[in-house]
Amino acid sequence: MTIEDTKTELNVSFFDRPGVEKGIIDVAQGIPFGIERVSNPSVGIGGVYGAWGESYDNENLPMFLEERLGHPLQPNEKLNLSELGFRNRHHVPLNLSRDEHIQVELQVGTRFLSEAMKACDWHPSEVEAVLIGMSAPLSEDYLNQITAAAGIPSSALKVSIHKACDGSTSSLHLALNPDLPENLQLDQNIAESLYGKKVLVGGIEGLSRFVGSSHDANALQLFGNAAGVLGVIPGQTMKFLAGRSREVFDDEGVLQVAMYYPHSRQKTDGSTNVDVTEPSANNIRIAGLMHEPQDGSSVTMAGPMGMVKLFVRTGVQVVRDVYGAYQSRLDELGMAGKSLAVAIVHHANYKINKLKEKHLKNEGIILRMPWLLSEFGNVSAASNMIAFLRELPNMKPFDHILIDGFGAGTYYDALAVELGG
To answer: What is the rounded distance in angstroms from the CA atom of residue 131 to the CA atom of residue 201?
Structure first.
């Protein structure tokens, strides 16, 4: 879907899409909830995505934000959200208590895991790992709570990844690439241990709660709630071909994000900003160092052009490196001439994606990068999973897919995979 396609669907909420199962979370006055299940038996992958909270379109959003900010948005603060690819985003009420936020997101997380297993036709007892990207987890044991509530055995590996918008792509990369630096820091390599096993991977982002303490008008207009979870069997339904990760610390603080998770607050060995810890049995935490706001708020960000400068240059380099490694891998496999069917790219905003696409094209790398998330806003780590599931019905056995994630910190993960058949 291109940005032009979204213009014909203005003000259509995700909740109004055909195939979306709607409900109410029984907290406070009731929180709207919607979820869509997707499966493609020909490649052996299924999953679910959706959102919770009221859906605000671009016309009605300013009224909600003015109530949250306590003052009207100034004309120079208002973003052209349609131009950035977004027409809706989802927010919970302003007055929820911490306990109510916990109730909402525990129900949300449990539902997404349960429905993802149904989409894959898996029994909870079969799931051997759950890897979830979360920018701002509710608690250190959030994954333990939602996996237990979904009936997944306590023996299953739980991996929480806190690398902002890169969280879900990093999760998938961890499950597939044994040479990833984080895997090499562990006594048990995650990718090697999960080969051939049933694994849930995704992003669950309660960003309405997270940005609630921010006074940054840009952040408040862009971010909203959403989640996406899919089931894969590494080495069978999804095979790793090539991948790269990179971190370039945001010294200038172009995108400052509070770390609502444990981190040493310093580089761990002089070369990485990522803490890899095992806080309890069958639990691993991957935590990225962030440039945090000095005013104690959750998010402070530059304007759209600042985001372009932050993500495009290094993002293009990472994709270029992966593309080169992918071509070399094709030669090794005797598959020269095979091409990537589609690129699933984090939806930070439409302009970033189009500029990346343009720079890559100038270097002879032609990738189809559909825009798929207009109903959600920027939903951080949920973004890549939703985009993947939106495109999943069009994927074919043995297709090669590029998955490109990037986020505050700054962190980049890109990988090429082959689907099963």
So the answer is: 5
Rounded CA-CA distance 86/89 in Å is: 8
pLDDT in tens, 85-109: 999 999 999 999 999 999 999 999 9
Provide long-range contacts, Cβ within 8 A and 24+ apart, for 4-10: 5/371, 6/82, 6/85, 6/87, 6/371, 6/374, 7/82, 9/87, 9/374, 10/57, 10/82, 10/87
- At residue 191, φ and ψ (nearest 5 deg) are -65, -40
Give the contacts of 230 (CB within 8 A, at least 6 positions apart): 45, 46, 47, 48, 116, 119, 200, 201, 202, 385, 388, 389, 392
Give yes or no for a contact between 390 and 347, defined as CB atoms under 8 angstroms apart: no
Identify any residues that bridge with 202 across adjacent strands, giving them in sequence order.
132, 229
pTM of this structure: 0.96
Q: Distance between CA atoms of 148 and 141, rounded to whole angstroms?
A: 11
* Cα 89 off chain centre by: 15
167: amino acid identity, one letter: G
Structure tokens at 151: 């009936």
Report the distance separating Cα 34 and Cα 91, nearest Å.
Answer: 13
Domain ranges of the chain: 3-419
Q: What is the pLDDT of residues 313-371, one digit of tens each?
A: 999 999 999 999 999 999 999 999 999 999 999 999 999 999 999 999 999 999 999 99
Q: Which of 260, 98, 54 is nearest to 65 (CA)?
A: 54
Task: Quickly list H helices, 78-180.
Answer: 98-120, 142-149, 167-176
Pairing of strands 198-205, 127-133: parallel
Q: Write the CATH number of the domain with boundaries 3-419.
A: 3.40.47.10
Per DSSP, 408 falls in state T
Distance of CA 264 to the CA centre of its chain: 24
CA neighbor of 7 nearest in space, from 88, 89, 90, 87: 87
Joined together, the tokens standing for residue 264 give: 């040493």
Phi and psi for 3 in degrees, rounded to 5?
Answer: -65, -30
